[in-house]
Design a protein that fits this description.
The protein has 242 residues and is an alpha+beta fold. It has a single domain (6-241), classed as 2-Layer Sandwich (archaeoglobus fulgidus dsm 4304 fold). Helix content is 27%, strand content 24%. The chain is built from 5 helices and 9 strands; from the N terminus they run H-E-E-E-H-E-H-E-E-E-E-E-H-H. It has helices at 16-29, 86-100, 123-131, 206-215, 224-241; strands at residues 43-49, 54-63, 66-76, 107-110, 135-139, 146-147, 160-164, 176-181, 196-202. Strands 3-2-1-4-5-9-8-7-6 form a 9-stranded mixed beta sheet. A hairpin with a 2-residue loop joins strand 2 and strand 3. The two termini are 30 Å apart. The structure holds 2 DNA strands.
Length: 242
DNA sequence: GCGACAG
DNA sequence: ATCTTGTCGC
């Protein structure tokens, strides 16, 4: 598929201030609402691996529980990881992989934050806006924001706790940015799984983002397309190291 | 100076 | 994320 808005391509050569300003522009362009009603959607999971100084991006496309396509791309890493600027480190590789994808996805699930971000423009939002594609951010840890009235831990399976904007986020404090979603939990009290932090990327509201993430979990913590992309990226990274 | 910090 | 051994639990 094509990058609809080239002006939003993440350029690692920008200054930090320019990156942050582009993120504010992306956040203004992003739509954090929508219920995503689609019959038999093509859903892609996106993940990366980093063998040596390269970024390997992997996309797995699924429809009705079946894998229909895989795509990937490899680029050289040019900047280090900086909290809040992740999309400028990994985005070029991800967009290159999307340009290799032949099918037309209806939704993308990313491994990282969407609206849960200092400038409301995390990886899922940046990519979703650049591609003009509905997207959801699925993170394994919380970048910013705070849980609203969390119940006792450990959260039981199916629990959803709102993530509210705190003073680190450039938006009215208390705004619902996403949800902590306990997609999987053990029953006994021995081991315990952390929740996912799910937020809108583009064209979905926070509740819909949480529902979409949950709906794609098949007995595992991560949504199936993301699990598959994670696995695929790992395979490609192993080959790249050889 | 101290704490926070997606992947 | 990546570098790595063992260990716990079903």
């Amino acid at each position: 598929m094509e990058v609809v808005y080239p002006k939003f391509r993440p350029d690692p050569g920008l200054s930090r201030a320019e990156m942050e300003e582009l993120q504010r522009e992306i956040a203004r362009e992003a739509v954090f609402e929508g219920r995503f009603e689609c019959d038999s959607p093509v859903v892609v999971g996106v993940d990366q691996a980093f063998p040596d100084e390269q970024a390997v991006s992997a996309i797995v496309a699924m429809r009705d529980g079946e894998v229909i396509e895989r795509a990937s791309a490899v680029t050289e890493l040019s900047i280090p990881y900086i909290p809040g600027l992740l999309s400028f480190r990994e985005g070029e590789s991800i967009l290159a992989a999307f340009e290799e994808l032949e099918c037309e996805p209806d939704l993308a699930l990313f491994d990282g934050s969407g609206r849960i971000h200092y400038r409301q423009a995390g990886l899922a939002t940046h990519m979703g806006v650049a591609l003009d594609l509905p997207s959801v951010g699925v993170a394994k840890s919380l970048l910013c924001g705070r849980l609203s009235n969390p119940p006792e831990e450990p959260f039981s399976e199916g629990t959803r706790v709102p993530i509210l904007a705190d003073d680190r986020v450039e938006v009215e404090e208390g705004t619902v940015l996403g949800y902590a979603v306990q997609t999987r939990q053990y029953e006994g009290g021995s081991r315990y799984i952390n929740p996912l932090y799910v937020s809108p990327g583009h064209r979905v509201d926070p509740e819909t983002a949480a529902s979409l993430a949950q709906a794609h979990c098949e007995g595992y913590k991560l949504p199936e397309p993301v699990r598959r992309a994670d696995s695929y990226a790992g395979e490609l990274a192993d080959e790249a190291r050889q």
